[in-house]
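User: Continuing from earlier, I have the next pair ready.

Assistant: Great, send them over.

User: Here they are, in order.

Assistant: Folding the first of the pair now:
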Amino acid sequence: MIKQKIVNCLFVALLMPVSNFAQSFKYQASLSPATKDGFYAITMIPALTAYLQPDFRDLRLVSKDGVFVPYIIKQSTSAPDPQAPYRAFTIISQSSSDSITTLLLDNATAQSIDNISLEINNAFAERIASLSGSNSQALWYTLIDQFAINQHYSTTGNSYTENISVPTNNYRYLKIVIHNQKNDPLNIRKAGTFTSTLPVALSDFQENPPVHFTQKDSAGSSYYFFSESTPYIIDRVTVRVKGPKFFSRVLTIYTKNHSEDYTIKTDSVFNLATHSFKEGKWIFSVQNGDNPPLQISGVTTSQRVNIIIAYLEKDKTYHLEMGNASATIPVYDLVQFADSIPSNLPSLSISEINPKTGTSSSVPPSGSIWNKAWLWVILGAILILLSVFTIKLVKEMNEKKG
């Protein structure tokens, strides 16, 4: 038993430096001070999100003494219009295994949708899920990498409705994969879509810095190439057109692993909601057919307004840390209390964003015993000790048998 405890301690000692190195952040942003104890809202500006992964996995809120502070992120989303007609999907299958529930839906009409409505038996539980689409059930394409099914329940009935905003698509089949994390699954009774949604207010988006593009016309199509040294998160592309009075064209946005089609018709400004992406190079094309190319007078990009919400203490200094491709999304208990947080919160502003010059709140100084050179020495020592323990244990077992 004592030997086993020693071995366990050695493994813990080995894992500590590994986890610390994995939490190294490259940049930090200053925040205005909290004037009283309570919840605060911090709007994430494009200058900040430029240093983050698109899913914000490498964002941390840190106190002056280096402690990570729990937070949640709220994002503005479009909402189904309750007066719009509802179209039900056929639930082909709903199966659960290995802590995962897979819900397969049939959008039989293959009409475009921008929302999915799930009727779920009452459960005060939260789940992380993903959404894919297919026209054959053989080859699936990502629609949403990760979204939350939030904690809700109805006080007047036995079920509640979870509305999910999705990238506009017309896939015949939809697959929702829900991660239960060793918990019992949710009971999804019904699925469908509302045929229209209430538009997202323009104030729910914030414009990114100007983009630069070049245009090339060939073989009945026009191509627009975008290249930026600093990529920003893009949730919407706004295209301004100068062209004939009457036109109808298909515009396709291409990113590294995705493409989306839009129809643009006789207008001058088009706000195209996209799947969220952050890439330095991307393209869109316009199919002209036998018509002359449209004149694109301008293109701007925007990202949704995301707000960090956290409980902060008066007279304490806080800052944000970001820039770590190997970081994982933090899971905080605060998410369970999101419904009890007031809707109107005082705000803190983001000021200076700079490379980190000091030691990280989660990374030991380079001169500590946990630097990379010492890490290999410690690893070697642990392997030697394990070998000694193993040999000794085998000898003792042989002696007992003898």
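And the other member of the pair:
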Amino acid sequence: MHDCPIYVTGMMESGKSTFMTLLDGHPDLLVFPQEPNFGRMLEQQFTSAEDARRWSLEKSDFSKSGSLRGIEDQQESAYDHRKYLAELEHALSEKFAPREVMIETMRAFAEASNQNFDSRKYWVFNEPSRARMAPWLFSTFPNGKVIHLIRDPREHFAAIKAHHRQVDADMGRAPALSFSMDWALGVTQAFENRGKFGASRYLIVGYEDVRDQKEKTVRRIADFLNIEFDPVLLHPSKVGISAATTDGRITESEIGKWIQPLTRREHILIESLCGDVMLGSQTGYRPHLNSALQKIVNGLLRRVVYASYYGKRLLKGIVSPDALHELSRIDRAANNVYAFRL
């Protein structure tokens, strides 16, 4: 089991947390209940066990909070955070290689939640998508697997707007632009990784599949992991405690809800920047933007990116005044050639 991690990844609001609650109850899986910050850990480059121990105990978000979102009132019956910290501190007295830190983090969690680490086939953790994480994981854990969650970009951005009040602060002065570039890059990378590492090791799952065809999708995931399908996979839990409320965001009532929350500019930016990926990557998502408007907007967007970064690198939430001026021109173009089929 030590060499068998499952890395669940995707952008925020792609359904990762809810997806983890579906895996939680299976007897072959040890599921870490929150993001363990392994991606951030890899960036630290520890040089001693003291560095690894201090970061794991003091800097990791989970170590600092110890709170299991959704079951806070019940978690004491299933999880002992003090025991987790004590087990981890002891285990990292001499170890500091990232591989060892990850394994000992999972082992400490298993002890603190009364689960048998050695009897589980896989250990499962959830992290935001990072470019280097999958290649590193496969080189370090040859038996590891990745499940990458994606979502229709229009519905995805609408969910981010609905659930994150600080979206402007988090994504810069043009959040739809920043999101669209991140989405297109992330989905492209997901399909490239599947091609590079193979479909037996890298699985792409649509948020909509989990929502609309839960049992079929969960059976597909069980086959991917080579575990027996168990009805418990259809019922969300966290450390074995029912977490039905956390499943509330994946409901049929969300279908098509992106239409109202998005502004006209956001519609256009998202479909212009994500349209080619939507059409060309087997996502099943289809843009509504007509070709005439898309040509106009794509031309303006090239000038936006150039104005922000002189065309040398991707926009990352930082938009210059010149670029904002170009964005205002998109609004005027939209007024002349607006053609969404809503």
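Worth noting for the second one:
The chain has two domains: 5-171+182-254, 264-337. DSSP finds 15 helices and seven strands in the chain.
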